Known about the structure:
The structure is a single chain. The protein has one domain: MetI-like (MetI-like fold), CATH 1.10.3720. Helices cover about 80% and strands about 0% of the residues. The protein is built from 10 helices and no strands. Helix 3 packs antiparallel against helix 8 and helix 4 (about 110-125) crosses helix 6 (about 140-165). The longest helix is centred in the C-terminal third of the chain and has 35 residues, at about 180-215. Keywords: Cell membrane, Membrane, Plasmid, Transmembrane, Transmembrane helix, Transport.
Amino acid sequence: MNTYPTRWTRPPQIIRSKFWRIALMLLALAYLVAASASIDVNWTRVSEGLTRGARFVGGFLTPDFTTRWRDISQGLVESLTMTLTATVAGVLISIPFGIGAARNISPVWVYSFCRAVIALSRSLQEIIVAILLVAFFGFGAFAGFVTLTFATIGFIGKLLADDIEECDPKQIEAIRATGASWGQVVHYAVQPQVMPRMIGLSVYRLDINFRESAVIGIVGAGGIGGTLDTAMSRYDYSSAGAILLIIIAIVMLSEYASSRMRGWLK
């Protein structure tokens, strides 16, 4: 039977000296005050921003789906197409990189190369990649497609490699003991252990890619983000509110479908 203490005892302090605890707190407070004082606040611009914010909230509460529906539907179809194709292409490309980046089944040089590619993909934010690719290929959905594909390789490749490294080694050794080739080991020992999670991650990445398509569209990479940027530039807040509501609805539907599919796969 467990016995619990009847008296509360204070946990040990990280800094035992009371003088240094107070001194550090005063220094942190002084730094916050100095940092706050260094912020250059233009209260005239703040006032103007609040006025525009109120107009935006008003437009969000009275969304206009009809006036610019043609532009909205075109941007939405382009964004969905870009998201789906980029996710499929990214997942297909990430599979060999994910397998190669698993230390337990790949040679060292293959492991190093694949990990470097995955690290490069993960080190750059989608918005930065989109800006670079728009400069290379010009405005349009192709730059967005390449951006989302590149981001999917890093995301899926990293998680797939980690899953393979955490596979049950007994199953891998059992298949190897039969004289199976490397491909047969991957097919019969690794694939059954990682496939359910791989499908769930792919659906989750589809959800992420749609949200990212709205962001990268603002820098000219096509999709619904470009339509949203145009509406905001024209101060057409009712259309912008309608676009945001559509994005929120699609993301919620995607999240629901993703959670249902992950639960089904379990």
